[in-house]
Amino acid sequence: MTELYLILLAYLIGSIPTSLIVSRMQFNIDIRDYGSGNAGATNTFRVLGTKWGSFVMVVDVLKGMMAVKLALLLPAYNGNEFERTNFQIGLGLAAVLGHIFPIWAEFRGGKGVATLFGLIISISPWTAISCAGVFALVLYLTRFVSLSSILASLAFPVFILIIFNVDNIAYRIFAIAVALTVILTHQKNIGRLLAGSENKVPIFKNRDRRKSKRLF
């Protein structure tokens, strides 16, 4: 029963609508009425700029980390790494579900990538660092947060199954499920990327301006 209470608490933590709070308190708007209509870090970058987009991303990552750390409240899991990891995955997924369907924001949230990343940081830091490297490289080269998220999520099962060869079957299944889920939640973004209409985030603009000047 205690596990169920903690999973519910993890969902409530994930439900904290960071981008919505920022947009209402700082700009007196609902972030979901602008840009892609999504209440996540990517749309915050696009609509409110780098400063607030970065803030929202960091807080959303912390939501996933906080949810996973709830497992520490149950000492019974401290001696069994396999069961602890599985429970941590459950807590993290509850937070991700809360981010996507937040009870505090009419169940209209973001896509859960940042919160999911917080989950991975807490369970497998080296895998998280590797995925973050993929994300950062793609973002630097393209300025598309959506494409960066998709490629980083596809890299996740590659790191888990092949490079780090994690032997926890539940975690291996989880890694594959993450990649598939991110692709499903980014279908509209994929469509816009293919059509050439996906918006870039307002970072690395100076670099792109310098490149344009060199071309002309």
Shape: globular
Question: Would you report the number of β strands?
Answer: 0
- What distance lies between the first and last C-alpha atoms, to the nearest angstrom? 66 Å
Average pLDDT confidence is 90
Percent range for β-strand residues: under 5%
Q: Radius of gyration, Cα only, in angstroms?
A: 18 Å
Q: List the total number of helices.
A: 11
In helices, the fraction of residues equals over 70%
How is the main sheet built? none
Low-confidence stretches: none
Number of domains: 1
Oligomer: single chain
- What is the H-and-E element order? HHHHHHHHHHH
Account of the 3D structure:
Helix content is 72%, strand content 0%. The chain is built from 11 helices and no strands. It has one domain (2-208). The chain is globular and about 50 Å long. The chain is an all-alpha fold and 216 residues long. α6 (113-123) runs antiparallel to α7. The chain has helices at residues 2-14, 18-27, 41-48, 50-69, 81-100, 113-123, 125-142, 145-163, 169-185, 187-195, 205-215. It starts with a helix and ends with a helix.
Concise structural overview:
The protein is an all-alpha fold and 216 residues long.
Q: Which tags fit this structure?
A:
216 residues; 72% helix; mainly alpha
Ordered list of secondary-structure elements with their pairings:
Elements: H1 2-14, H2 18-27, H3 41-48, H4 50-69, H5 81-100, H6 113-123, H7 125-142, H8 145-163, H9 169-185, H10 187-195, H11 205-215
Helix pairs in contact: 1-4, 1-5, 3-4, 4-5, 4-6, 5-6, 6-7, 7-8, 8-9
